[in-house]
Design the sequence.
């Protein structure tokens, strides 16, 4: 299955030359070239969609005000599109019901530590994470979810060399790293808006086998007085042998989200990549708390379509492109692999990965479950790029026969609205370089998890954004200090 839109473009190389540092550095801004698609019929600029209920229980999923907590200007015509959405959000329109609220690391955290020893790092390991169901949250790459993290959408990848499906970031625990816990990936928050109507994320995926064991063994053998052994030190990025995977989300409405995944091949040879946008429910049914089990099921349609139904979230539909194959399993523990017990289901959490990598009969042929991936295999030419689209919306196929009509136009419009928003809130005396730093800093700040799944982060993020709102205006030189004790929710 080959992507329909492929171009050659090496001007968009985002790999920082100084990426040997142990902490992630901001990427340079990505040029705004848009693949050409026919002009079609997604909503054009003008009045924003009317308010719609966010959830089946009638709540709107509104978030704490951050940058938008000051009174709006008196003249509505002077507002940017994002400022109008923020005003609507305060009035109850659920523009922030969906956003980047999915954790990047749930394994190895106190949230999933049920042990008597209280050793969170070893009780729930990265090796177990692909096979063992979480209870209190979920994680993923470039992920989004509703504000209670009940229905999640994130990206999985396979370069045809890795021993496992790349579904989450890898890092070392406190006892494995020579300087403690440390993420061993390169990922960047490139852009975001307060309502998450547009957001952009970049992940760098090697084309060679990911060196899980090498990173672990070398760092474990080093002393505290030596430098950390980083992913770039392993040589997997030599000669440009990697993919830049750019993930963009653009909202056509408060609960209508288009996702475009653009894969850039930075090497001098054609390379294959499996792209699997994955939708799943957080497991709330295996712990004896009652309530009906949610369900994902294939829908007969011209496009691959999945119907997602949850007692509180209501009904959503995930649309994939025609070449995608839908692979279903359950978001439930592989009891045999993790605990050596009898299987609770023939289609466990790691069923999609085992099927793709090993041909195992671990995906449900009946097309239903609580986890599904829209699998597409791309062959990306040397120096070229290819794109994959999915769309998550409440609108069913009977009223949405062309789910990707006008997709590129929508993304371009939301990106332009992001430009307008940041231009409006940035003091005119700020230099171009400082504008870039400020914008990417805010993009990172908007990645805080505002959902009630993690209340402490909810509260601290609100305080942090209130500080960011107090950026000095022209003529002011007031120093703004961040709140003490704030730590980014980045994986380790």
Sequence:
């Amino acid at each position: 299955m080959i992507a329909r839109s492929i171009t050659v473009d090496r001007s968009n190389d985002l790999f920082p030359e100084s990426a040997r540092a142990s902490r992630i550095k901001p990427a340079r801004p990505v040029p705004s070239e848009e693949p050409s698609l026919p002009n079609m019929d997604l909503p054009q600029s003008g009045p924003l969609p009317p308010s719609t209920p966010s959830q089946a229980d009638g709540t709107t999923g509104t978030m704490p005000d951050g940058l938008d907590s000051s009174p709006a200007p008196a003249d509505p015509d002077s507002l940017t599109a994002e400022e109008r959405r923020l005003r609507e959000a305060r009035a109850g329109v659920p523009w922030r019901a969906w956003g980047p609220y999915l954790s990047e690391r749930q394994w190895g955290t106190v949230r999933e530590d049920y042990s008597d020893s209280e050793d969170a790092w070893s009780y729930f390991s990265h090796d177990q994470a692909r096979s063992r169901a979480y209870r209190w949250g979920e994680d993923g790459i470039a992920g989004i979810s509703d504000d209670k993290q009940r229905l999640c959408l994130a990206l999985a990848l396979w370069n045809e060399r890795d021993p496992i499906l790349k579904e989450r970031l890898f890092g070392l625990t406190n006892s494995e790293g020579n300087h403690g816990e440390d993420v061993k990936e390169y990922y960047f928050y490139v852009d975001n808006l307060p309502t998450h109507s547009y957001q952009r994320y970049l992940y760098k995926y090697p084309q060679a086998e990911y060196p899980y064991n090498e990173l672990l063994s070398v760092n474990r053998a080093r002393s505290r007085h030596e430098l950390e052994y980083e992913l770039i030190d392993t040589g997997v990025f030599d000669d440009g042998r990697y993919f830049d995977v750019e993930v963009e989300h653009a909202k056509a409405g408060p609960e209508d989200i288009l996702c475009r995944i653009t894969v850039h091949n930075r090497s001098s040879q054609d390379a294959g990549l499996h792209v699997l946008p994955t939708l799943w429910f957080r497991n709330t049914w295996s712990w004896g708390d009652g309530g009906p089990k949610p369900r994902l099921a294939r829908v007969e349609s011209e496009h691959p379509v999945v119907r997602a139904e949850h007692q509180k979230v209501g009904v959503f539909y995930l649309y994939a492109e025609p070449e995608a194959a839908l692979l279903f399993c359950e978001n439930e523990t592989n009891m045999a692999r993790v605990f050596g017990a009898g299987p609770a289901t023939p289609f466990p959490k790691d069923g999609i990965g085992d099927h793709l990598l090993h041909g195992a009969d671990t995906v449900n042929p009946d097309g239903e479950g609580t986890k599904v991936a829209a699998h597409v295999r791309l062959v990306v030419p040397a120096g070229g790029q290819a794109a994959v689209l999915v769309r998550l919306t409440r609108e069913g196929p009977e009223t949405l026969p062309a789910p990707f009509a006008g997709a590129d136009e929508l993304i371009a419009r939301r990106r332009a609205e992001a430009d307008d928003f940041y231009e409006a809130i940035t003091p005119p005396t700020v230099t171009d370089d400082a504008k870039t730093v400020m914008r990417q800093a805010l993009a990172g700040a908007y990645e805080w998890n505002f959902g009630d799944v993690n209340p402490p982060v909810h509260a601290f993020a609100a305080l942090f954004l209130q500080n960011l709102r107090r950026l000095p205006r022209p003529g002011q030189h007031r120093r703004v200090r961040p709140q003490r004790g704030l730590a980014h929710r980045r994986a380790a």
Residues 1-74, 449-466, 468-492 have pLDDT under 50 and may be disordered. The radius of gyration is 22 Å. The longest strand covers residues 242-253. Residues 6-469 form one domain.
